[in-house]
Write a structure and sequence with these properties.
Elements: H1 2-6, H2 10-28, E1 37-43, E2 57-63, H3 65-72, H4 76-82, E3 89-91, H5 98-103, E4 117-121, H6 127-136, E5 146-150, H7 174-185, E6 191-194, E7 209-212, H8 217-230, E8 234-240, E9 245-251, E10 263-265, E11 271-273
Helix pairs in contact: 3-4, 6-7
Length: 295
């Protein structure tokens, strides 16, 4: 049936026979002569793409010993006669290239994260989900694209309720495990991890966007000091008010307020927010949840 469909298109038929012959020769090397071959093909008719009604065609079939010998002997007439009983397996083809997968999440003409280097410091409650969403938007795609995950902590039981990873990753490196999960889900992305403190991998802190998802004031202040010489935009994200809300601050210009501007020192040597989430006198109850744990 398939050969009869191809035959009127003489040039296409000859081309298919040529490629089929080459494929059979390759697959026949080192194989027992009396064993059948499973052959698969994808045909791309002229003008076929995923935006038109002319779609690619995919088939597979089993080439038995008689057919294989007829093909290798270039006995096309015999090949046509013997091919009547061949059963073809047809397949549907779906578009899955990077531009399609990640571009459809964007507004038309809006640039995606292709060829951008995004560095995420902290792979915890905020950072792990943030890395997942960045991957869905194409961070790490393109020849120059890369998603860098930095965290030297391990996953503990108390993290499970608010983390991308589950119980099967307990005691494993957060950065390594998040990278592994995302690379499996998005094999076309360049995602790397560093199981280190960010001070140990300063050379990585140069990119299109640095994200501080550690929730630590000391890290935020240190990154702002480094920015003076490296000039990269920083997005800070943290949970505040005993878990009451999440806050973000984007610092991408030296004339704008930086992370340090949000905090003021207290008499106890600590820092508190200049714009507090909770009103003065708010009744906050801190519940013990375990040794060395907080809210």
């Amino acid at each position: 049936e398939f050969i009869q469909w191809l035959e009127p298109i003489n040039s296409l038929f000859k081309l298919w026979i040529k490629y089929l012959l080459e494929r059979v020769k390759i697959l026949s090397k080192g194989r027992t002569a009396n064993k059948p071959l499973n052959i698969g093909f994808i045909f791309l008719p002229k003008g076929s793409n995923f935006k038109t009604k002319v779609s690619p065609i995919a088939i597979s079939f089993e080439l038995n010993v008689r057919l294989r010998n007829a093909l290798l002997g270039k006995r096309l007439k015999a090949l046509k006669n013997m091919s009547q009983g061949i059963k073809l397996q047809r397949y549907s083809i779906r578009q899955a290239d990077s531009d399609f997968v990640y571009g459809r999440n964007m507004i038309e003409h809006e640039s995606i994260l292709i060829n951008k280097k995004i560095v995420v410091i902290g792979a915890g409650a905020i950072g792990s989900f943030l890395c997942s969403q960045l991957a869905c938007l194409g961070a790490g795609s393109g020849k120059k694209g890369k998603l860098v995950i930095i965290d030297n902590d391990i996953l503990k039981p108390e993290n499970i309720g608010r983390h991308l990873l589950g119980m099967d990753y307990i005691t494993t490196s957060k950065s390594k495990s998040v990278q592994s999960v995302l690379s499996t889900s998005h094999p076309d992305l360049d995602i790397v991890f560093f199981n280190d403190q960010f001070e140990s991998v300063i050379e990585q802190l140069q990119g299109d966007l640095i994200i501080n998802a550690t929730g630590m004031q000391s890290v935020g202040v240190s990154l702002e000091l480094l920015q003076k010489s490296h000039r990269y935009p920083i997005l800070h994200a943290w949970i505040e008010g005993q878990g009451a809300c999440a806050r973000t601050l984007l610092n991408d210009h030296k004339n704008f307020a930086c992370f340090r501007c949000l905090w003021e020192p207290t008499e106890h040597g600590l820092y508190e927010s200049k714009i507090p989430v909770l009103k003065a006198g708010s009744n906050v109850e801190i519940t013990p949840v375990g040794c060395h744990q907080s809210y």
